Amino acid sequence: MTTAVLDREGLGALVAALLADGRTVVGPTVRDGAIVLAELASGDELPYGWGVELEAGRYRIVPRADGAVFAHSAGPQSWKNYLHPARERLWSADRTAQGDVSFERHEPEAPAYAFLGVRPCDLRAIAIQDRVLTGGRYADSGYGARRRRALLIAAECTEPGATCFCVSTGGGPAADPGYDLALTEVIDEQGHRFLVRVGGEEGARLLERVPHRDADTVTETVARASVDDARDRMGRALPPVDLRGLLGASLEAERWDDVAARCLTCGNCTMVCPTCFCTTTEEVTDLTGDHTERWQRWDSCFDLDFSFLHEGPVRPSGRARYRQWLTHKLSTWHDQFDTSGCVGCGRCIAWCPVGIDITEEVAALHAESETET
């Protein structure tokens, strides 16, 4: 494994090199009172000197004195917004004056994305969506095209947020394989710099074009210690039990009534979740009826019509819909994809308007099951 060190100017040069390659660089930046993902025109747009304060139903950006660029937790968006966009045209059809109908499949060229600052939880989420959307018989061709051209630059976590719980989902603040480059930010008396690990040939070629120096022992030691320390400072944790079995055996638990009394069924948790993938289609026509388009858009299992069959929805109550979401995420996802559907990013906690906490709900279900036995 190749390691190197970039300084702050080197990070800006990295962004410039990606732009020079014609890539669409997407990374964190400060906008509208949040650290959001957006297209970057230069490294200067990165959120230097900004962090976040998180709690259930609460998100605030706060200034930092150290000028760190990656010392913030996951924001309201994930890379799903770019790889699996919220709305996408699939095809269009036109009727001629003679009454004939022609169809045109919508297959635009996939952008060459470079994702800068991919958190380890989101790196795992991308791997899960790869399995869901391209690993089966019915692959999503649009997702596959965008994913194949995407270059991933991970940023390991050294500042976990109060809603983070990735360690208890089997992940952690260290980046798993799957990245092209991985950065670990180090700020100490020797300056502001980034330890870089190369994860693939394309990452190696990119690094060669950017001013850097060989990794030194001090930087490597401090970087590893910072990540290890972050592992011990997670803000939350799922209970260390068989979650798959727990959720499967808790279908009639009383706790579902408690959470249903608070849940607005707004679907925020599914929209911000980096692994939720459900979609529906809608037809859009012009006023003449001679042109129509089919669009794919995100859907949510919290929507009343999501489970509509024949004469009504299968899950009409908020209780049933919340139970479906949580049980699928932590239990039946294994049946479909041989993995959990949760990476512990904490977005569903922070961006729930009433502060429902997935770790609290699972702990309550576990406590109830223990009481029954």
Task: Please give a structural write-up.
With 373 residues, this protein is α+β, with helices and mostly antiparallel strands. It is 32% helix and 25% strand. The protein has an eight-stranded mixed β-sheet with strand order 3-2-8-9-10-11-1-12, sandwiched between helices. A hairpin with a 5-residue loop joins strand 6 and strand 7. The model has no long low-confidence stretch (mean pLDDT 95).
Write a concise synopsis of the structure shown.
It is built from twelve helices and 16 strands. The protein has helices spanning 8-20, 80-83, 120-134, 141-148, 201-208, 217-231, 243-248, 255-262, 268-272, 318-337, 347-350, 358-372, and strands at 3-7, 24-31, 34-39, 50-55, 58-63, 87-95, 101-105, 113-118, 151-155, 181-188, 191-198, 213-214, 279-285, 291-298, 308-309, 312-313.
